[in-house]
Structures are given as C-alpha cells and as structure tokens.
C-alpha cells in the first residue's frame, strides 16, 4: 500500500506540472498591441485555455489511473461443498464375550493365556468331568433296566385286560397293572432326562471360544473351583474380536438433531485415518454431559486397539452444483456481506447470501451467478463503482486494467 500511495503522489505531481505548463502557454499566446498611438495599455483580456474533448478524456483517464485499486480476481464456479464437524470418541470391540462356566466343577487344565490368538471353537480350558461321567453312566444303566421292565408290565396289562373281559379276574387287578405301567414309564422318562443333563454337563466341562479373537483376560488357574450360581465366581476368560471394531462418538446436544444413521465418518488416530459409517445412535442423551452417543462400525485394517481415543470428522451436509468462492472475497459492509463483481474495470458491490463453509471456501446461495469475476486480494479496500487494476499471480496471463472482464 505504501508503494501505491507513493506512485499516486508522483502521478498527481506530474499532472499539476503539465497543467501549469499548459496555462503558461496560454498566457504567452495572448495578443498584445505594442504599437498603439496613444500608448495606452491594451484592453485585450486574457482568456483561459479551452480544452477539447481529447484533453478531457486524457485528464479523466489520468485521474482514474491515479486512484485505480490493484486486486486479484477469481471466478464464481459451481462445485460440491461439505459441512464438517469434529468430535471425540473411543474405540470399542463389537464382540468381547466374558466366558463363565455353566457347571460347578474344578478347573483341570488351562490351554491359553492373555494375549493368545484363538479361533472360534478352540478349547480354552477343561473342567473336571468325572462326576458328570458317573451321572451319565447311572442314567444309562437305569434306562437299560427300565426298558425291559416296562415291556413285561405291558404284556401283563394286556393279559389282565383279556381276563377282565372274560370276568376271570377282578377289575382291581387290571387297575394295579395299569398303575405299574404308568410308574415305570415315568421312571424311564426321568432316567432319560438325567442322561440329557449328564451329557449337557459333560459338554460344558470343555470351555470353548465362541468367537475368533485375542484373549483379553484369564481369571482362573488349574485347581480353582468354579460355580455358576455363585455371584463371586469370576469369568474364566474374556475374548476380544479385534478384526471388527466400532467407534463410540460423543456429539454435543447442539448437533443431536443433525446426526443420522448412514452418515459417513472419517476416523483419525495419530496420522492414520479410516472410513466408517454411523450404524446406530442412542435414543437418549447422557444425563451428565448431555452428549449423544453414536456408533460407527469399521473393519480394523490399521491394527487399532479397543479402548484407544480417537477423533472423528463427520460430514453433516453435502451440497452439489452450488456456487462456491473463496471466503477471502467476502467483505463485511453496512449493507451486509458483499463481494465486488468486476466489469469494465470497475468494481460493483453485490450483497450475497452465504451457505455452508468448508476450509477457505464458502457457498453462495444468492447474489452471484456462475462465471462472475470477483475481487479477491484487495477486496477490503474497494467500494462501489471504484476503478480497479487486475493484478495477476504467477502463471496467469497479463490483463489490462481497463478490459471488459465479462
């Protein structure tokens, strides 16, 4: 600006010198009669120099050149713009089951420890199964003894029915045979239930990994007695699936209405990023911090750890085919936010309505159309209908300050 002011003062000085020389020439060319008889002073009056149209145009151009404001320019163009917000979050495992025993027994063997990678169906530990095997054998033995007994009682019942029909035995005898059959059938069903229970108990003496993952915690050792009915009995293991994770994101109350399922999210940890999608949200805000919990699932291709803190960049809005300009072109004036549209070397002040921002770009909802040439650097020094001189950055073609820009 100091350089511009100095050049303007030099131009003004040159203009005044030219004007003074023109005036001196006009006085020198005025006619005076030195041969008058009465030797009286001439009465001819000096007339000011009359400027023609070309002189007026030259002077006007000189004045405009003195006050022309240098600016860089940019054209309003359509594009896509997004509104983003950043929030904090924490990584969680989608599946992290805690394995408890379903039977009461002593821990016999432990096959894995914390940090070990396990596969679904892999045996993690064995419980003592001797008592359950004895129960199974007892149930099988009882079933074996009851089946032939029931068959014999059914034959007796059939024979008694025949004799009663011939009135050879009293009906009470038939009733007793029928009661024995029912009792034996009940005992047989009970033995079968005991066998199922024994098989169930034997099955759960083998602690099986329900998912593939990594052992997060081992809480028992060989010789410990575990009881599923005891509240103090800890889980035997915790297995965490680290292949499929989710991010729990905490949105402030002011954004709660804007967060919807299906929104795209960019998760960030240090210098790493991963794409994700919001799958679900909690229906209520947290009472303590008034935050909305949103859950975004993602595949763990970066080997992130559950429990780590992350940040998330969320796309709240996305507008396509909208007019976008640099935010630097916006100037606050009494009329509101304005931009200066350039045409024929003059700046025209235009009030605009803005939309969403993304970085140093801003959406223009009204006031501009595609292709409008607007002032960028130097726009803050402009006013309506002021002459401008377009300054070009490196790589741009030179443009005369007075050319038609439209």
Q: Helix/strand/pairing class, anyone?
A: alpha+beta
Distance between the termini: 28 Å
Strand order of the largest sheet: 3-12-15-14-13-16
Give the fraction of residues assigned to helices.
Answer: 25-40%
Radius of gyration: 49 Å
Tell me the number of helical segments per DSSP (H or I, 4 or more residues long): 4
The parts where pLDDT drops under 50 for at least 5 residues are 1-52, 393-406
SSE ordering: HHEEEEEEEHHEEEEEEEEEEEEEEEE
Overall mean confidence score, pLDDT: 83
Question: Per the principal axes of the C-alpha atoms, what is the gross shape?
Answer: elongated
Describe this structure in words.
The protein has 406 residues and is α+β, with helices and mostly antiparallel strands. The protein contains four helices and 23 strands. The chain has helices at 2-28, 53-67, 130-165, 171-203; strands spanning 69-71, 73-75, 77-93, 98-99, 105-110, 117-118, 123-127, 206-208, 213-218, 225-226, 237-240, 244-251, 264-269, 272-281, 292-299, 309-326, 331-333, 336-343, 346-351, 353-358, 361-366, 373-375, 386-390. It has a six-stranded antiparallel beta barrel with strand order 3-12-15-14-13-16. A hairpin with a 2-residue loop joins strand 13 and strand 14 (272-281). Helix 3 runs antiparallel to helix 4. Mean pLDDT is 83; it is low at 1-52 and 393-406.
Which features does this protein show?
406 residues; alpha+beta; 4 helices; 34% strand; elongated; disordered N terminus; disordered C terminus
